[in-house]
Amino acid sequence: MATRQLGRGIVLQTLYEWDFYKRKEIPEEILERNLEEFTPQYDEKDFVLNLLKGVIKNIDKLDEIITASAPEWPIDKLPIVDRNALRIGLYELLYADREEVPPRVAINEAIELAKTYGGHNSGKFINGVMGTVYREIGEPDKNPEKSRND
Predict the structure, then answer these.
(1) Average pLDDT in the 106-118 region?
(2) 139 phi-psi bin (left φ>0, alpha ψ -120 to 50, beta other)
(3) Rounded CA gap, 141 and 150, in Å?
(4) Where is the NusB/RsmB/TIM44 domain (predicted)?
(5) In sequence order, which residues have a C-beta less than 8 Å from that of residue 71 and are 6 or more positions away?
(6) Which fold has domain 1-137?
(7) Contacts of 141 (CB under 8 A, 6+ apart)
(8) Is the Cβ–Cβ distance between 107 and 131 less than 8 Å?
(9) What would the pLDDT profile of 10-50 be if each residue is shown by its tens digit?
């Protein structure tokens, strides 16, 4: 498994636990515990910490986007894995450096998280929501002159 893909899995597990326990724990402490337990030799700790902090910092905006893109699925009714895979994917799609994480990579990684950790239809659901948002932001892979910062 690729290093960053593994890191995204650890962030997903961290967000899952944080979300499951109603956000009562400190997410950075959960992340550190998960890294120590599951990947003690992991060498991209800055990547996972920045990803976790970015998702948490933007969680309200991300949830609004999920709600708008999948109105038939209230955010609190989504499976915890699906909503957190979407949060990670949307964060990377909308806020990450596109040189570091191209839009299609953000989409594919979110789908892989959902397929690996979610239910039978999670990958299809994530693909649909991510695809909708990708089109709404102007398909940046096809139109690189369009920027989310314009």
Answers:
(1) 98
(2) left
(3) 16
(4) 8-135
(5) none
(6) N-utilizing Substance Protein B Homolog; Chain A (1.10.940)
(7) 102, 103, 104
(8) yes
(9) 999 999 999 999 999 999 999 999 999 999 999 999 999 99
- Asked if residues 89 and 113 have their Cβ atoms less than 8 Å apart, the reply is yes
- The structural domains of the chain, with segments of one domain joined by +, span 1-137
**CA nearest neighbour of 85 among 45, 54, 64, 116:** 116
Question: In the prediction, which pLDDT does 133 show?
Answer: 98
Task: Give per-residue pLDDT as tens, 51-75.
Answer: 999 999 999 999 999 999 999 999 9
| C-alpha span between 8 and 88 (Å, rounded) | 8
